[in-house]
Please model this.
Amino acid sequence: MNPLWTLLPPLLVVPFIIAFGERRRNWREGAILFAGFCLFVINIIIWRATLAGEVQVSGEIQILSQYSLKLVVEPMGVIFGLLASFLWIVTTVYSIGYMRGHNEKNQTRFYTCFAIAIAAVMAAAYAGNLLTLFVAYEVITLSTFPLVTHAGHAAAVRAGKVYIGILMTSSIGLFLPAMIWVATASGTLDFAEGGVLSGAGLSGFSLAFLLGLFVFGIGKAAVMPLHRWLPAAMVAPTPVSALLHAVAVVKTGVFAILKIVTYIFGIDTVSASGAADWLLPFTAFTILAASAVAFTKDNLKARLAYSTVSQLSYIVMAALLATTMSVSGGVMHIVMHAFGKITLFFCAGAILVGAHKDSISQLDGIGKRMPLTMAAFFIASLGIIGLPPTGGTWSKLLIAGGSFDTGMWIWVAVLMLSTLLNIAYLLPIPLRAFFKPLPENSDAEHHDHGDAPAACRYAIAVTATGTVLLFFFPAPLTELVAMIPWR
Amino acid sequence: MMDQLPALQVMLPLVGAPLIILLRHPVWSWAFATLVSVLTFLVSVALLLQVSDGSIIRYSIGGWEAPTGIEFYIDQVNAGVALLVSGISTVVLVYAYESIKRSLDSSRHYLFYCGWLLCITGLIGIVITGDAFNVFVFLEISSLSTYMLIAFGSDRRALVASFRYLVLGSVGASFILIGIGFLYAATGTLNMVDLAARIPDTESPRAVLVAFSFLTVGLLIKAAIFPLHGWLLNAYHHAPVAVTAFLAGTATKVSLYVLVRLFFSVFGTEYSFGQLFLNWVLLPAAVAAFLSMSLVAIYQTDLRRMLAYSSVAQIGYIVTGISLATQTGLTAAVVHIFNHGMVKTTLFMAVGCILYRTGHAHIPSLDRLMSRMPFTSTAFILAGLGLIGVPLTAGFVSKFTLISALIEQGWGIAAGLILLSSVMAVAYIGRVIYLILFRESRGPAVSNEGYREVPISMLVPMYSLLALSLYFGIFGGQSLSLAGSAAETLLRGYP
Model:
């Protein structure tokens, strides 16, 4: 199937969103759900065709003399496409409950930008060359900007400035020249099996420098010191934080790095030249430092944001270790972390809508009022930590195994230490919710709230179940990972 | 008829101008000027189609064969530039009607449109002529009419701006004239093709060297290349905004074309860049231009002035491409001449729309413009993204090509500096976009509530130009292949 089809549902739904508008919001959201359903079906068709070994490419648009925009399906993209399109449906269900429960303004603009961002994510997932990936990357930045500043108050606008400032500056200042360098050195921007740079005659130093330009230029991967935009983006409504800033946007960043390491550099070139050696300490530092910062945050969304920063660097590290096993683990971690983190954000939003609370210190005893939400929170925490019975176990195992292979024990130690930190900052939250008593007179100013809106609860149930199912049935995922052409 | 097209290209506006003096009526003179501009544009299209296969039109005026007589020499390169001039003129003229009606007393409209036609006569003449002295003549026609158009600005500072341009412009023109004089003395011919043939074996190479220096400096002034850009800032700031929009897309671009034509075709690439190291003059100037001017643009409070600084910076990009003197570099320069012409004209048209409703272009009081003038704001934002060089806009195509040209030559540092200046462009354009979208007025609240959108006759030309620039951003392969063959023609020199 032509991967261009994946762009159609999210783009075609935009006029409908605008036409239905606020007056017929049931129709509007029905249209989005329908588009999401179509998109998911298209992705499934592409998935089946990929398993059957079909070559799926789109046409080209020649935007530069030798370089064009085009989409090509490969296994990594299928995984990302399936993930983003499935979670879009779930998030839409969740948004219906959240946005209405929270009485958000400008919902039409919200859903419009959301749909455009999803279209761009699809373009990134199936990007056939680096140029397409870059263009999609920029479109994602621009289309999510109105979502970050959605609330419109001074803090949101300030956060928006940080968001666009870091993402735009890094992509234009580092990502773009890196891409042009690849183009001049190898004469092509296409993603190719085994990479295009092995025969380009770049010295070891140039390769290391080029890889650094990519790792830091792709600011969406949030490797420190370019992580500031991600906590800033938490000012957005929770569905945005959940789908975009835990899954779609940030995963586009690490996905881009994985693709570049695999299909532009080639994992053999990276590991043989040692180009990544100077970058690994940055990712290790990010993993640990972000976990430590997360530990100090009392605001729930801020803690989750720093947790995301840390988890993204797992994937970047996996890519930079450049062994078959670690990169496979990185690809799988995209999915595993996505299910876990989106559940956590859904829970944070549910707590905000249901109980009007956003700080961890306020959550004592809340588990009795919102049992399902906090149970899901617990399961998803296990997923992030990487404990059975959740999918996170497999990906973490693979990444750790990959670092064993390279013989660099220190990175294994970093991973394990970070796991301990994960336990320390995530598990106290459900424990406190279930086992601490409700503070007295806490509901003096609040009405006696129950659990979150029904739509939110359904969404949470689906993603939490997904986290567990991925532990027992990882086969479809591993099957696709096994199809990635490494060399 | 088709044979006479080169003559018509210049004669149409030249004859149209005095006819407007006879018409005098403000609306009719506008309509007539627009009609003439449209016809000129159609002639440019026809000429470009004729030469698009790589052929060359040599038209002898009055039947006097070159090198005795004067000829028009049209190939792909200058047919394209003529198309740019007449196209932008047409678009901006349609737009100018409302804008000029508001800012200029109706009894003087006919003078304005007359000056406009003379200006395009001059600019197109410079571009298509094949005679060095003729270049000077048309340069004077365009300069004199430009001084006049700038002086039509609504406040009295326009007169000072016009006068300063007159002084510097005359210095530049005199330098060019002296240069042409020396060339004539050294070779005994004024025809550019003939010059190119005779310069290599001239008996007085020192005279050619002097000519080269005078011409270079003169053209650097006319093209507003840093540090000789001083006239441009005030001229762009205080001229009627329609004039600024027109000049920003055409005037400096035409001077850059002459520069390129002389260096590459007449003196020859080997002479200019191989023996005289012109690149070591142009490149530092260009780098200084885009770095310093982008930086200064960040701190401007007037939108027109900010865009004027940005223009000098963007000319720096074009000159960087020229100074490389390679196929890719020159392609980047040529394509950026077009892309920047479209984008900057669109931006100035948007500024004109803002001026039309608010009466000022003070950046800090643009807050929340989006809610009051959504179409103007959207056009400004999209064109602004093109100026920054965001992918899928025209600016991206030229910037990508320019940077790859630099990396190809191993000038990675210059490429890095271009990216640094792009980041500055993010800052100065981003600041305005930020104000347009979100309120942040700290100073005394300017009461500019209740503006409406501008008339449709201003929006349509603005959006058509914007759409064109976006088209060339998406299908950049086409414009790049045209620019590529133009660059090839230039590097090869006259056949």
In short: The mean pLDDT of chain A is 86. The CA atoms of residues 385 and 422 of chain A lie 6 Å apart. Residues 3-483 of chain A form one domain.
